[in-house]
Amino acid sequence: MDCVFCQIVDGKIPSNKVLENDKFLAFHDINPKAPVHVLIIPKNHIDNFQQSPGEMFGDMSGFIQEVAIVTGVDKSGYRLITNCGENGGQEVMHLHFHLLGGKKLPWAQNLSKDPKTSF
Ligand code: 5GP
Ligand code: ZN
């Protein structure tokens, strides 16, 4: 399996862990875009949001809320993002949510890499 995040789950690639249970893992993004930038993944491989079973989100939302508490952004607020597929800008094909916080985030940060494009 050459999936980077599966290798992180298996401990074959090191990560800076924030929280873990039997189903989910949270770890710091290697290239943080905010003072708090944590990736939250299911331990089982799922390609992306479009492939995700709805039943998973009951447990996952509680886990994400716990990550927000552990990283101290539950009261100050945060942004939760999942990029899905090519047009969504997904680079790692293992479902993950980005939890970003620790500062007031501008809307649509880095959404347009081309300065000529206004959307
Ligand atoms: P995507 O663009 O797929 O939504 O985001 C992938 C994220 O994974 C990026 O923010 C990138 O910095 C992060 N990332 C990629 N490889 C690794 C890794 O080996 N370790 C960690 N901690 N983060 C990674
Ligand atoms: Zn995977």
From TrEMBL:
Protein name per the record: Histidine triad nucleotide-binding protein, Hint/PKCI branch
Domain HIT per the UniProt entry, residue ranges: 4-113
Motif window: Histidine triad motif: 94-98
Active site: 96 (tele-amp-histidine intermediate)
Name of one Pfam family that matches: HIT
GO molecular function terms listed in the Swiss-Prot or TrEMBL record: catalytic activity
SUPFAM superfamilies to which the protein is assigned, alphabetical: HIT-like
InterPro entries: Histidine_triad_CS, Histidine_triad_HIT, HIT-like, HIT-like_sf
